[in-house]
C-alpha cells in the first residue's frame, strides 16, 4: 500500500475514534441497562477501542507487505 494511502486510512481511523469517544455518542450508551451484568457504556467503549486497534493493525500490516 502506498504511504499516502496508508496515511489517509490512519487519519480516517483517528477521526472515527474522535467520533466514537465524543460526548454525543457516549451519551447515547449511558443508560441504566446492563448486558450480562456489564453496563452498556463499558461494552461500547471496549468494543470501539478494539475496533480501532484492529483497523489500525490491518492498515499498518498491509503497508509492511
TrEMBL record:
It comes from the Bacteria. The chain crosses the membrane at residues 9-29, 35-59. Keywords: Membrane, Transmembrane, Transmembrane helix. This is DUF3311 domain-containing protein. It comes from Nitritalea halalkaliphila LW7.
Amino acid at each position: 500500500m502506498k504511504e499516502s494511502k496508508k496515511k489517509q486510512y490512519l487519519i480516517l481511523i483517528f477521526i472515527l475514534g474522535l467520533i466514537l469517544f465524543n460526548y454525543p455518542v457516549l451519551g447515547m450508551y449511558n443508560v441504566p441497562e446492563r448486558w450480562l451484568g456489564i453496563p452498556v457504556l463499558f461494552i461500547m467503549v471496549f468494543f470501539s477501542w478494539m475496533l480501532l486497534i484492529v483497523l489500525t493493525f490491518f492498515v499498518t500490516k498491509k503497508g509492511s507487505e
